[in-house]
Every structure is written in structure tokens, then in C-alpha cells.
From TrEMBL:
It catalyses: ATP + protein L-histidine = ADP + protein N-phospho-L-histidine. InterPro entries: Bact_2-comp_sensor_kinase, HAMP_dom, HATPase_C_sf, HATPase_dom, His_kinase_dom, Sig_transdc_His_kin_internal. Residues 297-349 form the HAMP domain. Its main location: membrane. One of its GO terms (cellular component) is plasma membrane. This is histidine kinase. The chain crosses the membrane at residues 12-36, 274-296. It is a multi-pass membrane protein. SUPFAM superfamilies: ATPase domain of HSP90 chaperone/DNA topoisomerase II/histidine kinase, HAMP domain-like. Residues 459-566 form the Histidine kinase domain.
Length: 566
């Protein structure tokens, strides 16, 4: 028996409650309360249930009416056609818009006035934020828009046959009370396209007027997660207080209508018995508090340590472990948790290693797409022959090509902005000869940024695109590389004064870069840009970005955004 008590945490709790709380309170209170309590509780509960049935029937009828009318509206042909005609409108711009607006508001107002009382307001809003209010609305369009801005983030835009409860809105209008909003997505049944939202507001005045007949106790409406929709803000404290609770289900929305009644009436009936047993109960309570505090502190210490270890591990300290000092349930749980943490740590290490290997393989694969494969020895021989025949021009071009290839062969080594610019000078020298274009290459790079590390061949594919797509044979052009800082980011702008792109071509290029899409059959395919974008995302994550801006006849600018790495 002693071993069981020593090793069982839950057994300690059970014996403590039996010895110091349950047994004395049960024996003393059983005789006094068993005679009166059940009779009074049953009487109060029966009365409360009758009241709740009346209230819940009224509220359920309102909800059913709301759901029925709104279901008719979202499938009504006039509503669908009106919203389809005005789905791209944010204001009334023509007489046809005005007529469609009037027809839509008329249908909404007619349904609102026939089906509901003055405490229910309805309005429709399209995808552009244009509001179609019921003419019976007590709120102005500006106040409806303020309400919409408060609850539209809670709307699930997936199609649903039911209305969604999207929250409560505190109106800033002194003449309007707080409202409970429901919303439903309006879809075109022919195309499935979302046209807008039908929103229904039930003013809290409706519930206030309905619950005025309650003279004893309090009524609260809560949702399925026990959050208060209407009623006392002290609902959670009431839940733990001395109250009798009756519940009725508001089935259309899965809410509960709860009626709280104070136990004051019951206490008045039991007062005489209570005074007789008060002295005995007080003695046991004092004794229990003194002993239970000491025991609880001792027994709760392992739980606190377990909670601290779990919380600290969750905050990122993966080296922390639970200090096992026994063999009860808590210590066995701590031992199992330590084993789990060790396994998780091993798994994380393996995953990180695998990710690093995958990243290296992907980067190597991307490099292989643009790494040239020339024979250095052959080029050197050609250069020597050109020097012998005093062909200085072509020997210099061969020399530039050799320097360029040497840098390509060192692709796995870290590169800097300065190295990338030197590579560009050799590359542009060669391209000038190939394309018959005289280029002026400009660099505007602060000195303290020249040594910043960037991925190898970040700028060359962009300059290559500028030369191929921006200039024609025999032209002259300028390509500038400008680098500056913006907070903790580095902005690299590659600008040319070539022929530029049309607006639609520029949008396609940006879209393909964002989607890493390469279509080899179309002009202006961003193969080099997409390649650079992939490598930057692999190295820097989502903070890296490439954006192309161009105007036909005025050149193109490619903006590269990467985190600062010194």
C-alpha cells in the first residue's frame, strides 16, 4: 500500500480529496440539503424551461425566416442578373447602372419589409465594395461600409448553402445599436463566379425587447465555442458561480440560449439548516485549506516543472530536458517526453542535412544551365597565334573570353559585387564584338557594398537579356548597374536605354519570373531571369525578388532585391 501511494500521483490526489474535502462535506451536507435542494431546483428549472421554450421559439422563427429569405435572394434571377451587370462597378456611372441598382435595391427592400421586423437590416455588397442597401435600413451607406470593414475578414468565401455568422459589429452611430451579422456568398449558378455577399444584421434591440419579460435571472446567448453573443459579459464568472442554468438550443445556428437564476431563493429555504452546520463546515474548511495548500504545493511542483520544460522547448530551447526524480506517473511522463525530444532533435538534424543537400544539388543544377564549356588551352593557343600575326584586336577579345571563362570555372566559390562587375566588363567586351554594338558600361556602387557577397552569375544573365532584346546591330547603347540600400535590403538596378518592351510583354515577363515559367517558343522568354530568380529564392528565401519595368522606346530596368550579406 505504501508503495502504491508513493509511486502514484493520481492516488495522492484521490486520497487527499477523500480525506480532507469530499468525505466531511458530503457527510455534513447530505442531511441538510437533500430535503430541500432537489424540490427547489426542480421547481426553478421547470419554470425556466417554460420561459426558454417561448423565447427560443421566437428566436428560431426569426433565424429560419432570415435563412429562408436570404436563400431565396441569393438564387433570385433578378438579384443574380443585377449583380452580374454591376459586378465590376464601384459607383453608378450610367443610366443602365442606375436602373440595375434600383431594381436590385427594390427586390432587397421588398423581401426585407415582407419577411422581417424593423430590427433586421439587409444589404448586398459586390466584389468592388459597392453597397446595395435595403431602403428600410436604419443605417446609412457609410455606416454599413464601416460595419462591412469590421466583419468582412471573418467571411469564408467558399460556396456554402448556409449563412455564416461573421461576428458582432459595434456601430459608431449613436442612433444604432450593436448588430449581429450573418453573411452569404452570392455565386452565379451559371458560371460559378462569385458576384458578392448578402449580409443580414440583427440589431441587439430585438433581443433586448424580447428579454424584457424576464424579471428574475439573466438570459445569455452563446455560440458553439461558448463565446457570448448577447447578454452579460460576466458569463464566464456566472458559469463558475452559484447559479441554476437552463439551456435551449437555437438549432438554425447551433447557438445556445442560457437562462441563469440565482440560488438566492434556495439559500433562503436552507438558511436555518445552513446555520446549524456552518460551524462544523468552517472547522473542516480551515483544516482542509491548511493541509491541502501544503500537499498541493508539493504535488504540483512536478507539473509546474513539466509545464516549464514544455514551454521552454516550444520557445526554441531544444536542449532542455525534464529532471526525472521518481517513478510516479508524472516522472514517467517526463521520461517519455525526454525520449520524444531526443527523437525530434535527431529528426530535425536529419531534415536540415537533407534540405542542405537538396539546396546544393538544385543550385548546382541551375548553374549547369548557364556555365560555359570551352577549352581554355585551345583559346590560349589561338590568342598566341593572333599575337604573332599582330592581330591585337582579336587577341584582346580572346583574352577577355579566357578571363570570363576562368570566372565561370570558379562558379562554386563565393562572389562579390566587385567580381560580378569585373565579369560584366569582359562579357560586354565580347558581346560588343559579336553583335556589332558599341556599349558604355556604367557602375554606380558605393564602396562599402562592393565587397558584399552575392550569388555567382546574378548580373550576367540580366545584362545578356538587355543586349539581345534591347539593341540591334550597329547601334550604340548604355547599360548601368546602380546599387543602393533600403533598410536591411540591397537594391540592384540594371538599366539599359534600348528599345524596351510593350506593357503587355513586360507583364508576361514578370508573370513568368514569378511562376518560374519558361516558354521556349515565345519572344522575350525570361530564361536567364527565371534562372536567377530560382537561385535567389533558394539562397535567400521569399525575401528575394526580381521585378522588370520597361517602356517601349525608353529602355528597361531590372530591379533585384536581396537581403544584405556582408
Amino acid at each position: 500500500m505504501r508503495r502504491v501511494i508513493k509511486n502514484s500521483f493520481y492516488r495522492k490526489l484521490q486520497l487527499s480529496f477523500i480525506a480532507f474535502l469530499i468525505l466531511p462535506i458530503f457527510l455534513i451536507s447530505l442531511f441538510n440539503y437533500s430535503i430541500y435542494k432537489n424540490i427547489i431546483l426542480d421547481k426553478i428549472k421547470l419554470n425556466n424551461e417554460s420561459v426558454l421554450n417561448v423565447l427560443s421559439n421566437d428566436i428560431n422563427k426569426l433565424f429560419n425566416d432570415v435563412f429562408y429569405v436570404t436563400q431565396l435572394l441569393v438564387t433570385d434571377t433578378d438579384v443574380i442578373n443585377g449583380l452580374t451587370e454591376l459586378q465590376r462597378s464601384s459607383a453608378i456611372n450610367s443610366f443602365e447602372d442606375f436602373k440595375s441598382f434600383g431594381d436590385l435595391v427594390g427586390v432587397l427592400t421588398t423581401s426585407d419589409m415582407k419577411a422581417f421586423n424593423v430590427n433586421v437590416d439587409m444589404f448586398i455588397i459586390n466584389n468592388e465594395g459597392f453597397i446595395f442597401p435595403s431602403m428600410r435600413n436604419l443605417k446609412s451607406v457609410s455606416h454599413l461600409r464601416e460595419d462591412w470593414l469590421q466583419f468582412n475578414g471573418s467571411i469564408n468565401e467558399e460556396p456554402s448553402e448556409y449563412f455564416q455568422w461573421v461576428g458582432q459589429v459595434n456601430s459608431e452611430n449613436e442612433h444604432s445599436s450593436r448588430s449581429i451579422y450573418f453573411s452569404k456568398v452570392i455565386d452565379d449558378p451559371r458560371t460559378g463566379q462569385q458576384l458578392g455577399f448578402l449580409n443580414t444584421a440583427i440589431a441587439e434591440d430585438y433581443f433586448s425587447n424580447l428579454f424584457e419579460q424576464i424579471t428574475v435571472g439573466s438570459v445569455v446567448i452563446v455560440d458553439e465555442e461558448d463565446n457570448v453573443i448577447y447578454g452579460l459579459n460576466e458569463h464566464s464568472s456566472i458559469e463558475n458561480g452559484a447559479f441554476i442554468k437552463n439551456e435551449a438550443l437555437l438549432s438554425p445556428v447551433d447557438w445556445k440560449l442560457i437562462y441563469y437564476t440565482s440560488e438566492r431563493q434556495l439559500i433562503e429555504e436552507l438558511r436555518k439548516t445552513f446555520y446549524q452546520s456552518l460551524s462544523i463546515i468552517a472547522l473542516f474548511i480551515i483544516l482542509f485549506i491548511a493541509i491541502s495548500i501544503a500537499l498541493a504545493n508539493k504535488m504540483h511542483s512536478p507539473l509546474k516543472q513539466l509545464q516549464h520544460v514544455t514551454q521552454t522547448y516550444g520557445e526554441g530551447n531544444r536542449s532542455i530536458r525534464y529532471d526525472v526524480k521518481g517513478n510516479d506517473e508524472i516522472n514517467r511522463l517526463g521520461k517519455m517526453m525526454n525520449t520524444t525530444f531526443d527523437q525530434v532533435e535527431l529528426l530535425i538534424t536529419r531534415i536540415e542535412q537533407e534540405k542542405e543537400k537538396i539546396k546544393e544539388l538544385e543550385i548546382s543544377a541551375l548553374f549547369s544551365q548557364i556555365r560555359p564549356h570551352f577549352l581554355m588551352n585551345t583559346l590560349n593557343s589561338v590568342r598566341c597565334n593572333l599575337i604573332l600575326v599582330e592581330d591585337v584586336y582579336h587577341s584582346n577579345k580572346i583574352y577577355s573570353l579566357m578571363l570570363l571563362l576562368r570566372k565561370y570555372l570558379n562558379a562554386n566559390k563565393p562572389s562579390t559585387l566587385k567580381n560580378e562587375c569585373e565579369l560584366l566588363e569582359h562579357y560586354v567586351d565580347i558581346m560588343s564584338m559579336r553583335n556589332g554594338i558599341e556599349f558604355n558600361l556604367e557602375f554606380l556602387i558605393p564602396k562599402h557594398l562592393q565587397s558584399m557577397y552575392i550569388p555567382f552569375l546574378t548580373l550576367q544573365p540580366i545584362v545578356e537579356n538587355a543586349i539581345i532584346h534591347g539593341f540591334s546591330y550597329g547601334e550604340k547603347g548604355t547599360i548601368s548597374i546602380c546599387v543602393h540600400e533600403r533598410e536591411d535590403l540591397i537594391i540592384i538596378e540594371v538599366t539599359d536605354d534600348g528599345r524596351g518592351l510593350k506593357a503587355e510583354q513586360c507583364r508576361k515577363v514578370n508573370r513568368r519570373i514569378d511562376n518560374n515559367s519558361i516558354d521556349g517558343d515565345e519572344e522575350h522568354q525570361p530564361i536567364g531571369l527565371a534562372n536567377v530568380s530560382q537561385r535567389l529564392h533558394l539562397i535567400y528565401g521569399q525575401r528575394a525578388n526580381i521585378k522588370v519595368e520597361s517602356e517601349e522606346g525608353y529602355g528597361t530596368t531590372v530591379e533585384i532585391i536581396i537581403p544584405f550579406v556582408n
